[in-house]
Amino acid sequence: MNKAQEIRPAEGKLGVLLPGLGAIATTYIAGIFAMRKGLGEPIGSFTQMSKIRLGKRTEKRNPNVKDFVPLASTDDIVFGGWDVYEDNTYEAALNAEVLEKTLLDQLKDDMEAVKPMKAVFDENFVQFLDGKNIKEASNKMELAEALMEDIKRFKEENNCERLVMVWTGSTEKYVEPTAVHKTMEAFEEGLRNNDESISPSLIYAYAAMKMGVPYANGAPNLTCDAPCIVDYATKNSIPIAGKDLKTGQTLMKTILGPGFKTRNIGIAGWFSTNILGNRDGKVLDHPDNFKTKEVSKLSVLESILEPEQYPSLYKDLYHKVRINYYPPHGDAKEGWDNIDIFGWLGYKMQVKVNFLCKDSILAAPLLLDISLLMDLAQRANMGGIQEWLSFFFKSPQTAEGLTPIHDIFLQKVKLENTLRHMMGEDLITHLGLDYYE
Fold it and tell me: Which of 117, 95, 93 lies closest to 107 in space, CA to CA?
């Protein structure tokens, strides 16, 4: 057995700050309040529902993850956030129409108390939102400083010992890193000069870094993967992770793709289309915002299938992704996949998948896990990119030059082995005696 890492205890309240209090965030918040009242279970949550094997199989040590590592209790979470709309989280959840009103009414007092702070917003990055609950300032540095004041005030007013921030706002238009994103000096100069390539989500990430708050990116925006943020987080031992929560269609790809590859089944084409009618769907109806999501979605299969290693099976794969805004569906997202595969002697076959899911129901447990594990990383003094949290993300953030792992099964091995390492347990590789005993 190895020596366990030093991890500060999870004492006191944990403040979870969410930029964007829409469908996903309010479903997460409502779920925690419902759990406290015994009105539901955290189904889908790795930290709350999973067990983890320790040692040899013959030892039969399989504790719950939440009992194995010193996580904050869900009872100690305090929520705060920002939004361009003034609705409190009860009103926002009603508008989102993810959860039934009969459930929300039982949580009304708690949810009405979570009111959005004024948001940093720029219509050049999200053109299809029109909220008025927006901060005003002469430049982006002043907006960042206003966010830092919000963070400080929230922590004091809610008597929080620690904070984490998870972006749950809309997908912004696609932005490539430029010179302003390379160093913190250049970035801060860009904030003062209102550089047009600095998005609201980057301003939130900067404010979090300056306040020493771990930051995770739940959307495909350029945010905590900007070089200046990565460098600052690494030097100051602040955890960062991202990006884009792995929920509906991409979740299915990271399950099916490894299966086809494991059996050496070829794939000629993979056509994916989504229809959804929530605020996210409305934002993604704009081509600039869709491109950001498209880049995130398209990267998954190439990493899993490794076409350069298996050219006869995957080199000519044609991969197409579409997202369509369809208001009648609301938050009930529908993902259609047509997969053209081929097998023995090149004979063609097809797989059809129709995944009718609720994005927010799948995302909420991920937000809980990310919140608790980012806090754990901070208390274990694990700064910089948290690649071991790739399990939760569509476009996992890695160190520069490394290829991200998209295979969900390999991601889970990495996640569990990191926890074992933190707690001084032997890693499980499924090689040698630990496999047979």
Answer: 93
What is the C-alpha separation between 98 and 100, in angstroms, rounded? 7
Tally Cβ neighbours within 10 Å of residue 87: 19
Instruction: Give φ, ψ of 435 to 5 degrees.
Output: -80, -35
Q: How many CB atoms lie within 10 A of CB 424?
A: 11
Q: Please tell me the distance from the alpha carbon of residue 429 to that of residue 363, in angstroms, as a whole number.
A: 29
pLDDT band at 436 (very low <50, low <70, confident <90, very high): very low
pTM recorded for the entire structure: 0.91
| CA 2 vs CA 34, 59, 177, 202, 424: distances in Å | 39, 17, 40, 39, 4
Q: Phi and psi (nearest 5°) for 155?
A: -60, -40
**DSSP strands (E only) in 205-327:** 215-217, 239-241, 266-276, 318-325
Cβ atoms of 316 and 298 within 8 Å: the answer is no
33-55 confidence digits (pLDDT tens): 999 999 999 999 999 999 999 99
SS3 state of residue 117: strand
The answer to whether the beta carbons of residues 330 and 278 sit under 8 Å apart is: yes
Q: HSE of 68 in the Cβ direction (CA atoms, 13 Å)?
A: 25
The CA distances from residue 256 to 117, 261, 405, 429, in Å, are 41, 9, 15, 23
Given a cut of 50, whether residue 99 has pLDDT beyond it is yes
Task: For the chain, list the domains and their CATH numbers.
Answer: 13-245+361-422 (3.40.50.720), 249-358 (3.30.360.10)
C-alpha distances (whole Å) from 84 to each of 119, 153, 206 are 5, 19, 19
Taking phi over 0 as left and psi of -120 to 50 as alpha, with beta for the rest, 346 belongs to left
Cα–Cα distance, 223 to 175 (Å, whole number)? 10
The 10s digit of each residue's pLDDT in 252-302 is 999 999 999 999 999 999 999 988 776 666 565 556 555 555 555 567 888
